[in-house]
Design goal:
Layout (H helix, E strand, L loop, with lengths): L4 H14 L5 E5 L5 H9 L4 E4 L2 H10 L7 E4 L8 H7 L2 E5 L2 H14 L4 E5 L13 H11 L6 E6 L8 H20 L5 E7 L6 H7 L3 E4 L1 H4 L6
Parallel strand pairs: 1-2, 1-8, 2-3, 3-4, 4-5, 5-6, 6-7
Helix pairs in contact: 1-2, 4-5, 7-8
Length: about 230
């Protein structure tokens, strides 16, 4: 089916009009095609998020002419996929344990790469989500600060489904407070200026709480194929 590129473009324009200029839109392209990515790219999007290394590789192969795309891995990264992930993604936004962070640092050194990382934080109990609990992350900060081959630039979170607006806003604010605390703690190699929070259903709340990177899939791409 052909793609309604104008629909994608108008959705992106409408969202941009609602959010501050400093907030970056990441198009979550997992499950969508290279044509969807091209449409969003033509509307000015440069950051794209994929969840699976192999699915992303196919699309990246079809989009090699778009040399300024910034690819983010936003899905759980298995340890045996770290090396291919580093070759394919400039950002790994879903670093959910100290063990994984150390392995990424080691493999990045072997590959002579300096990827940007976001630390995934679990702010509320949710058996379907990965991520650091806040006490564990705070305990890991000194060791994370020693990982010199990677750039730890932000925090990321995915909220449990079904929260009220008030509960979601409170959790988003908690992540912003955590980032501020880490920034003030004096760790030279932890510069967590990126707050990746907010998706299609809750991004206005996330932006209100301080998000500067929102991850939008359905809000951009849903039902964009024409019959």
């Amino acid at each position: 089916m052909p793609l309604d590129e104008q629909l994608i473009h108008s959705r992106i324009q409408a969202i941009r009009a609602q959010i501050p200029a400093h907030v970056e839109i990441m198009a979550v392209s997992k499950g969508y095609t290279a044509d969807h990515i091209r449409a969003a790219y033509r509307a000015g999007i440069r950051h794209f998020g994929e969840s699976r290394v192999q699915e992303a590789a196919v699309k990246q192969g079809q989009l090699q002419d778009l040399t300024d795309i910034v690819w983010h891995l936003i899905g759980h990264l298995q340890t045996n996929k770290v090396k291919p992930a580093l070759k394919q993604f400039a950002w790994i936004d879903s670093v959910d344990s100290l063990r994984l962070a150390k392995l990424i640092n080691q493999k990045a050194w072997e590959l002579h790469l300096t990827p940007k990382l976001c630390l995934q934080v679990k702010l509320a109990p949710d058996p379907s989500k990965f991520g650091w609990l806040i006490p564990d992350l705070l305990q890991s900060l000194p060791e994370l600060n020693q990982l010199l081959q990677v750039q730890i630039v932000g925090l990321m979170t995915i909220l449990p489904l079904g929260l009220s607006s008030e509960a979601a806003l409170e959790l988003f604010r908690k992540l912003a407070e955590l980032a501020d605390y880490i920034q003030r703690s004096g760790y030279e190699h932890l510069q967590v200026h990126t707050l990746s929070m907010g998706m299609s259903d809750d991004y206005p709340l996330a932006v209100a709480a301080g998000s500067n990177l929102i991850r939008l899939g359905r809000a951009l791409f849903a039902d964009a194929e024409r019959e």
